[in-house]
Design brief:
CATH architecture of the largest domain: 3-Layer(aba) Sandwich
CATH topology of the largest domain: Alpha/beta knot
Structural class: alpha/beta
Helix content: 25-40%
Strand order of the largest sheet: 4-6-3-5
Order of helices and strands: HEHEHEEEHEH
Number of helices: 5
């Protein structure tokens, strides 16, 4: 995932008061000027972590009552609008690599998959833009979005 996308994810996490961002795969470089410019200092306000084993992380969050939801177009994914959430649902949103999306192994480990309907000719979207749309849709579901 590019440094600008990571910076954008920090800004989105701050804007929607996300509890934590968990990165997997290549560790992030917080010294990157591009990441810092895009994040606009939000990495100082947003909790983040890195995991080498995404499967253990998913399992751990499931045991804490989180519902893992993968943002990916698959044969069994539903649109964000079709997703039914309760006001107290705790979500572990899984987004993929910019180039490859969410891996098939991760998709196999997650029951719920959602996608964003697209009406143009392109079949994919920038990961940070897609995350922003998903977070916005989730925020409409919750009666009280936890303010800072």
């Amino acid at each position: 995932m590019g440094e600008a996308n990571i910076g954008s994810l920090f800004r989105l996490a701050d804007a929607f008061n996300v509890e934590k961002i968990i990165f997997s795969g290549t560790p992030i470089n917080l010294k990157s000027n591009r990441l810092r410019r895009t994040a606009r200092g939000t990495f100082a306000n947003v909790n983040y972590d890195y995991t080498e084993n995404i499967f253990e992380t998913i399992k751990s969050y499931k045991s804490k009552g989180y519902e893992p939801i993968a943002l990916e177009i698959t044969s069994d994914s539903v649109t964000l609008r079709e997703l039914s959430l309760k006001n107290d649902t705790k979500i572990l949103l899984i987004v993929g690599n910019e180039r490859y999306g969410v891996s098939q192994k991760v998709l196999n480990a997650v029951l719920t998959k959602v996608y964003i309907p697209m009406y143009g000719n392109n079949s994919s979207m920038n990961v940070s833009q897609a995350t922003g749309i998903a977070l916005y849709e989730f925020s409409k579901t919750f009666l009280t979005f936890h303010q800072k």
